[in-house]
Each structure stands twice: as C-alpha cells, then as structure tokens.
Design a protein that fits this description.
Length: 97
C-alpha cells in the first residue's frame, strides 16, 4: 500500500491543505500560508514505527519587508495542533478545524 492511500484511508475527511496566517512583528503585514499536510510536516515515530506526532517548520517571508518569520507547529497523530511557536511574528489565525 502506498503512502498516499495510507494517509487517505486514515483521514478521508481532511483537506490536504492547511492554511494559517502570521502577522509580521516588524511591519504588521498579515501573511497567509498554505501547508501541504501530506508533504510538509515531518512525522516522528515511536519504537514500533507508529507516528507519534508531526513537526512542521517553515520560514515565512512577507512582501513588505525582509523580516523572516520562523514558524514551528507540532501536530498529534490526528493532525490536531498541539503546539505552535512563531519567531519574528505572531500566529493570528490557526484555522484549526
Ligand atoms: Zn514585515
């Protein structure tokens, strides 16, 4: 069974895309970012090979200034966000369903 069908089977109702919005600390620009659930977060496994959680890291650059916003999210195995850390900006819309 391929990776795609396994993921699809596990969460048939979920969108592949996850959107969030960060606000730049320097200029106040609000930047909407798309995360691809299937490709971008890195799964972490326990000793039995089961996914325990996912880690997602992204450097976000707005269009109004050169302040780099560093985003780090942790999701549990059901893709619920369990922690978020944003450096250089602020998470204003987690858009968590
Ligand atoms: Zn900015």
């Amino acid at each position: 069974m391929g990776l795609f069908s396994r993921l699809f089977q596990k969460s048939p109702q979920q969108d592949r895309n996850f959107y969030y919005t960060v606000k730049c600390n320097r200029c106040g620009e609000e930047i909407r970012v798309r995360m691809d659930r299937m490709n971008e977060p890195s799964p972490e496994y326990d000793e039995k090979g089961r996914v325990t959680h996912y880690i997602y890291r992204k450097d976000v650059l707005g269009q109004k200034c050169f302040n780099l916003i560093q985003v780090e999210f942790v999701f549990n195995s059901n893709f619920e966000m369990i922690s978020s850390q944003v450096t250089g900006g602020k998470l204003i819309e987690p858009d968590v369903k």
